[in-house]
Amino acid sequence: MITEIEEYKKSKVVVGEKLQKLNSYIPQTAQSVILITDENVGALYSDLFPDYPVITIGTGEKIKTQETVDFIAESMLNLGADRHTFLVGIGGGVVCDITGFVASIYMRGIDFGYVPTTLLSQVDASVGGKTGINFKGFKNIIGVFSQPQFVLCDVNLLVSLPEEEVKSGLIEIVKHSIINDPTKFGFIRSNINKILAIDIPTLEYLIIQSVRIKIKVVTEDEKEKGERKKLNLGHTIGHAIESISGISHGFAVAIGLVLTARISHLSGFCSQETVDEITMLISSLQMATTSDIGLSELIQAIQKDKKKSLDTVDFIAIKSIGEVFIHPITFRELEKNIKAVR
Question: Measured between alpha carbons, how far is residue 183 from residues 258, 316, 319, 321 in Å?
Fold first, then answer.
């Protein structure tokens, strides 16, 4: 089943479309097309790519750097790319983030689209217009907001994912359900085995629902001045853990969600039952719910968070499954709370 969802500023997300149909989504105004992918995706799926030049980059957060941007820009120049070139990123979150960033700055901006190939990128990185690169190990410090023309979510590409990647993407779906959809939270809890087995209809349903939640928030607040900050639930702590430890994004955010729930309860915002529900769901995925990173090191990393303002950070607190709110908190208070709940 193909479901087309209109995104902010007339870009669109299409869930259930095939990678082989990519050509039909390229704008007629494009005078040339360049594909960007990574080594793993290229090895698996390059035979399904349309016949355009391909720029291949490495894998993982370690290559999400200015050096990779320079390599892509130089490759594009060598291919004769100009302001009428259309860029397509085919890969996971790193490929999507870098593709969008390069397209946004190359010759002051060219159009682009995504074919995300991981669950995490289909529900998160490819949707909403955030693009960027890391700086000195800290996530997404350099970047811009820029919307893709399209996002094609070929759910069948997920069958090649290892279980750990599926879990990593599922955590973003869990996050969306805690923010805005308690019914979906219950659905996830009841269908974990189907999800981890990559049951296509189940994943299509979850992807569509998550994308709709994110698009609704982005439409109201594209540049994260207010409501969109809620999408950072679990990420204030999770990004810090990821930057320090190097564990995958989803596994770091899983810990962030549990610690956020515990801090919310400690602060009197949510019930112990809510904490237990979130913890039990994440534990059932055999994912860690705490971290032994030193407290001072963790706070130092959190102080690099993009949502900070002087000595405070916009912490996303939980009221219940389906309701969160923005809670500005000082770093000193956050440090005290993390120490109390770990």
Answer: 19, 21, 16, 9
Least confident of 43-52, 95-104, 131-140, 298-307: 298-307
Tell me the backbone φ, ψ of residue 65, rounded to 5 degrees.
Answer: -135, 170
239 torsion bin: left (phi>0), alpha (psi -120 to 50), beta (else): alpha
Which residues contact residue 295 at a Cβ distance below 8 angstroms, ignoring those fewer than 6 apart? 335, 338, 339, 342
Phi, psi of 82 (to 5 degrees): -135, -165
- The pLDDT value recorded for residue 308 is 73
Question: What mean pLDDT comes out for the span 63-68?
Answer: 96
Q: Report the alpha-carbon distance of residue 105 to residue 230 in Å, rounded.
A: 27
Strand-pair category, 312-320 with 323-330: antiparallel
Cα-atom radius of gyration of the chain, to the nearest Å?
Answer: 19
DSSP H or E segment with residue 88: strand 85-91
Range 92-123 burial, b when 16+ CB lie within 10 A, else e: bbbbbbbbbbbbbbbeeebbbbbbbbbbbbbb
Task: Give the pLDDT confidence score for residue 159 in this predicted structure.
Answer: 93
All domains of the chain, ordered by start, with CATH?
3-160 (3.40.50.1970), 163-341 (1.20.1090.10)
Q: Residue 105 corresponds to which tokens in the numbers above?
A: 């700055």
Can you name the residues that pair with 151 across neighbouring β-strands? 13, 114
Q: Is the pLDDT reported for residue 311 higher than 90?
A: no
Report yes or no: 289 and 279 within 8 Å, Cβ to Cβ: yes
Q: Angle CA(1)–CA(211)–CA(14) in degrees, nearest 5?
A: 40
Which pTM does this prediction carry? 0.89
Are 167 and 287 in contact by the 8 Å Cβ rule? The answer is: yes
Compute the mean pLDDT over every residue in the chain, rounded to the nearest whole number: 93
Residue 67 and residue 71: Cα distance in Å, rounded? 6
In the chain, DSSP finds a helix count (H) and a strand count (E) of 13, 12
